[in-house]
Design brief:
- The chain is of the alpha+beta class.
- It folds into four domains: 278 residues, tricorn interacting facor f3 domain (Immunoglobulin-like, Sandwich), CATH 2.60.40.1730; 118 residues, Immunoglobulin-like, CATH 2.60.40; 167 residues, Rossmann fold (3-Layer(aba) Sandwich); 131 residues, no CATH class.
- It is 24% helix and 29% strand.
- Strand 1 and strand 2 form a beta hairpin.
- Helix 2 crosses helix 7.
- The longest helix has 17 residues.
- The protein is globular and about 85 Å long.
- The N and C termini lie far apart (63 Å).
Length: 748
């Protein structure tokens, strides 16, 4: 790393504690394992808390976390999340250094590094594993490194304020990567459409090296490798755990089944540049591919939507010609990403045929997905989705596709999107496989769920546990459209990796499924995650570094949220296509075919064109106007919308102003001068304070208010710590008495 990267700053000059990321991975058998090192340095003259939200592949399972400081290494353990958060905050208050790794959402994790002292350098090291997935004779490995800006309110998607990823176009973080490819996969050709790689022979395989990249795009590796079904089983204490990999060969797969197709294209601002170019190319290919007995319509959407025909139309020369003429001029000029309204209009358009398919082309950069999935499932249409761009939201789009019995594929700017479209069309025309069943030689203790749909030459995994080792063949059975029953026989093969990795991947999948819908309690799921040391939505990884008395932090740390690099090409911020050109690595003669690429020392960064989309906290509730003198008094009671609106406004002021406990008296003075909060001020003034100072009552009231407003308006970490510190000085009996009074609140 050069000296010019010793101190990384945002465009505004803010120092970023993240120095860069190094990763080392292995592809072997049916598994990809990656160890990632995040390097941090505090260049300031005060203790800080570095917070970094980063992406992970949706199928990946975190297995370990380690923290290194001053040559000392500490390993993390999974702890029930509320207990972990409590222990983390206690460590920070005690002046110790602590690490808390949280699962923020399905594909996002947040690492909190508290009390990194001035001048210190530390490493957070984690390891994850991901089952390999082969599709249509290829294996496509994706390592997400960037979180592109997403449309909507992240808090409504369950993220806490400190977990929300910010973006700064001046942020630059170097990324280096080494991947060892072992076994049969090392004998085939491979290519990276995203990065320039070098290759060297090693024992039992080859080593791929990325010497200098950036955290601004997905790393993608495409390898030759036909899928094959197999099952491996390992011992886990008193049970045996199996991973079944199925790659079904569906007979008579190539049919002329007529389609009722709704083509939906994202034309929001984030699609500008490479993404809309890909979408335009794909859309025209879709129209060309339609057959005479198909029917179709086209929807374009951004902040609003536009239907090309408004009804399903026959795939004749007239309608195909009109659609092509419209799509030739396709631009990303329709504003935000209001996907749900567009899809609702798309799925409700009239058709004389039952069922049908949606082909959605988008980068998927939205926060809210749950209501979208519910709406899509009610339509009884299958969603086939093509994710475009250098960093699409894979988890969002894959979930939408698989929950509607469709399929998802991503395509980067340097890949052939027409081939992806043709593969999606082939899936749509395949006979539907129904009544899917796995026949085990012995009854399982438990199994994970079967997929809602399967496709020819695709891959899916099933996990199960048994009271004895598996022996004999396993059968995959399903029925086709005509009622024909098909069976495929699968053999048990030895597991090539670490037995614990298979077991923990299986348990992580079980925990994920058992929580939706709730088939185990949160306490049971947390206990299971702790038993297998897994970071889940019920548990966090925790590490506490106990400092010597003379080395402890005296003050609370200053929060430094690590800003994301802007995803390459996002919103037309640059061109990723042909930078670099696709490089094909030939394993047999160890040669590399690269095209020349200049300017590789700097990331692709330009100004974003999309305005900030996160809704300000102050908009969550409108202020209640102060009543006019002589007007009729209206009571506002506990739980009423008017009270919640007032509390939301109070939380907004506290979040904006409260950084340290010493700030609190000035905040109270400000609150008392705000007319829109007069009703709260009057309530605090008139309450029986039991001899307490008004500021103390406000501390208690804000602590109570945080429990009333819910997840839509939470205290920031700075504010929460300050309130916690201040409330600790109030006698417990007095604090409890105030809480009772607050619960009986009535404002007039």
């Amino acid at each position: 790393m050069g000296n010019e990267l010793a101190i990384l700053k945002t465009l505004a000059g803010e120092k970023m504690p993240l120095l860069g990321v190094t990763a080392r991975g292995v592809i072997s058998g049916e598994l990809f394992e990656l160890e990632v090192e995040q390097r941090y340095r505090n260049e300031e003259d005060k203790n800080i808390e570095a917070i970094y939200t980063f992406p992970l592949a949706a199928r990946a399972v975190l297995l370990d976390i380690e923290f290194e400081l001053g040559g000392k290494k500490l390993s993390g353990i999974a702890v029930e999340k509320k207990e972990a958060e409590k222990e983390y905050e206690k460590a920070i208050e005690d002046g110790n250094t602590a690490i808390l790794l949280e699962k923020s959402s399905e594909d996002l994790y947040t690492v909190n590094l508290g009390n990194l002292m001035a001048g210190e350098e530390a490493v957070v090291r984690y390891r994850y594993a991901e089952p390999l997935v082969r599709e249509q004779g290829q294996l496509r490995l994706v390592i997400p490194t960037a979180i592109a800006p997403r449309y909507g309110n992240p808090e409504s998607a369950g993220l806490k304020p400190h977990q929300i990823p910010g973006v700064d176009i001046g942020a630059n973080y170097p990324f280096t990567l080494t991947i060892d490819v072992l076994g049969e996969l090392a004998k085939g050709d491979m290519a990276s459409p995203s990065h320039n790689l070098t290759m060297a022979a090693i024992e039992h395989g080859i080593r791929l090296n990325l010497k200098k990249g950036w955290l601004d795009r997905d790393f993608i590796l495409v390898m030759d490798g036909a899928g094959y079904s197999n099952i491996s089983c390992v011992r886990d204490d008193e049970q045996w755990v199996a991973m079944a990999t199925f790659c079904p060969a569906i007979p008579d797969v190539y049919t002329d089944r007529p389609l009722s197709l709704r083509l939906v294209i994202d034309c929001s601002g984030s699609m500008e540049g490479d993404s809309i170019t890909q979408a335009r190319q794909a859309a025209i290919k879709v129209i060309e591919t339609l057959k005479a007995d198909d029917e179709f319509d086209v929807t374009l959407f951004g902040s609003n939507y536009r239907l090309l025909f408004g009804h399903m139309k026959p795939s004749d020369d007239f309608h195909k010609g009109r659609a092509t003429q419209e799509l030739i001029g396709l631009e990303a000029d329709m504003g935000g990403t209001e996907m749900e309204g567009a899809l609702s209009a798309t799925t409700s358009r009239p058709s004389e045929r039952d069922g049908g398919d949606v082909l959605l082309i988008t980068d998927g950069e939205i926060w809210q997905i749950e209501s979208l999935i519910v709406m899509a499932q009610k339509s009884h249409l299958r969603y086939f989705i093509v994710g475009v761009g250098s960093s699409p939201s894979h988890a969002t789009l894959r979930t939408l596709a698989e929950d509607t019995k469709g399929a998802y594929e991503a395509v980067s700017p340097n890949e052939d999107i027409e081939s992806v479209v043709l593969r999606q069309f082939a899936r749509m025309r395949q006979p539907c496989a129904m009544r899917l069943q796995v026949v085990w030689p012995v009854p399982p203790l438990w199994t994970t769920l079967l997929p809602k749909a399967i496709f020819h030459d695709g891959t899916f995994h099933i996990y199960a546990a048994f009271s004895q080792p598996l022996a004999g063949n396993i059968k995959l059975a399903y029925s086709l459209d005509a009622g024909r029953r098909v069976q495929e026989v699968v053999q048990v093969l030895p597991w090539e990796g670490k037995p614990a990795s298979l077991t923990r991947i299986a348990i992580a999948k079980r925990i994920q499924e058992m929580g939706r819908p709730m088939r185990m309690t949160n306490e049971q799921l947390a206990k299971l995650a702790v038993q297998y040391n897994l970071a889940t939505e019920y548990t966090h990884y925790l590490i506490v570094h106990e400092r010597a008395d003379g080395e402890k932090a005296v003050d609370l740390p200053e929060i430094r949220q690590v800003k994301q690099m802007l995803a390459a090409g996002w919103g037309g911020s640059g061109v990723v296509r042909t930078q670099p050109c696709m490089a094909v690595l030939h394993a047999e003669d160890m040669s590399l075919d690269f095209c020349d690429h200049e300017g590789g020392d700097l990331p692709n960064v330009m100004t974003s064109r999309r305005a900030r989309t996160t809704r300000p906290m102050g908009q969550l509730g409108a202020p209640t106007p102060r009543k006019k003198r002589g007007s009729k008094k209206m009571a506002i009671t506990h739980g009423s919308p008017h009270l919640i609106a007032l509390l939301n406004n109070l939380m907004e002021i506290v979040n904006q102003e409260l950084i340290r406990p010493d700030d609190f008296p000035n905040i109270v003075r400000k609150i008392e001068k705000m007319p829109e909060l007069n009703q709260l001020h009057d309530f605090i003034r008139d309450i029986d304070k039991q001899g307490m100072h008004t500021d103390e009552v406000w501390v208690a009231f804000i602590s109570w208010a945080t429990q009333q407003v819910g997840s839509e308006c939470q205290l920031t970490r700075h504010a929460a710590r300050s309130i916690h510190s201040l409330s600790g000085a109030i006698a417990p009996d007095r604090l409890a008495g105030l809480m009772v009074k607050f619960n009986g609140i009535t404002l007039v």
